[in-house]
From TrEMBL:
The keyword Transmembrane does not apply. Its EC number is 2.1.1.80. This is protein-glutamate O-methyltransferase. PANTHER family: CHEMOTAXIS PROTEIN METHYLTRANSFERASE (PTHR24422:SF19). Keywords: Methyltransferase, S-adenosyl-L-methionine, Transferase.
């Protein structure tokens, strides 16, 4: 849907103010996805939609807008080299230096429809094997889109979405449906919590994390906001904890709280 300059800037300024996300150079994408927004909300024009959403009384409209405007592209085992580091380097270190009751805490900070959080948990279960039941483990998945979180909580995935899942995981951690789709089993769900989180708003957790995945989300923010978000997120890392960003995110992270390890991998000082 074509927009006037006034309509376009009204939309992107709203998103920028509320979420810190910059869409200034993505007019074609915004206009393309605006059709879906208006169809789903039954609004006849951009101005009608914005008049409603700016009243701050329509959380559903806000969720539709942000869910449509962001690229919620994810899949199981995405950027698998990070999971290799988790499995081969981080978990052995954690197993040696923390006790079972203290446990392991990992945050998937832009979890989208849940594949990242579930991948993390399946790696934990595989690594600890029979010992897993003796360990306290918690994986937290957060996102700004309630639509994506609802899908994550449901844990239902099509056979196409399961193409990157190893066969041994399909049989061990999923229930196959009659139509060929899959549902994550309750055992994998048991120690995962999903909740809504806007990264530019205050963040509250009762304990820090040993690992944080903040991948493929920083590209949406201007560099000034990126530094603030990274510093804020780093506050919730245990000393020596690891932060992962996306492999394609080449960012100038000037945080005094983090040490550069290798591209896309940082550690809490």
């Amino acid at each position: 849907m074509k927009t006037t300059d006034k309509e376009f800037f009204r939309i992107i300024n709203y998103i920028n103010k509320k979420y810190g996300i910059s869409l200034i150079g993505k007019r074609a994408l915004v206009e393309k996805r605006l059709d879906n927004v208006l169809t789903k909300t039954q609004c006849s024009s951009t101005d009608e939609f914005m008049d409603l959403i700016e009243k701050e009384e329509y959380e559903l409209l806000d969720n539709i807008l942000i869910s449509e405007m962001l690229t919620n592209h994810t899949f199981f085992m995405r950027e698998s080299s990070h999971f290799d580091i988790l499995n081969q380097i981080i978990l052995p270190k954690l197993k040696k230096c923390i006790n079972q009751q203290e446990g392991i805490r990992i945050w998937s900070a832009a979890t989208s429809s849940g594949q990242e959080a579930y991948t993390i948990n399946m790696i934990l279960q595989d690594y600890f094997g029979e010992e897993a039941k003796a360990w306290t483990m918690k994986v937290v998945g957060t996102d700004i889109s309630q639509t994506m979180l609802d899908k994550a909580i449901a844990g239902d995935y099509t056979k196409e979405e399961m193409e990157t899942v190893p066969d041994k995981w399909k049989s061990k951690y999923f229930i196959r449906k009659i139509n060929g789709d899959y549902k994550i089993n309750d055992y994998v769900k048991a120690n995962i919590v999903f909740k809504k989180q806007n990264l530019i708003e205050p963040i509250f957790f009762d304990k820090n994390f040993h690992v944080i995945f903040l991948r493929n989300v920083l590209i949406y923010f201007d560099i000034g906001i990126v530094n603030k978000i990274v510093d804020k997120v780093a506050d919730f890392l245990e000393e020596g904890g690891y932060l992962f960003i996306g492999l394609t995110e080449i960012l100038d992270i000037n945080s005094t709280k983090l040490k550069y390890i290798q591209p896309s991998v940082y550690r809490k000082l």
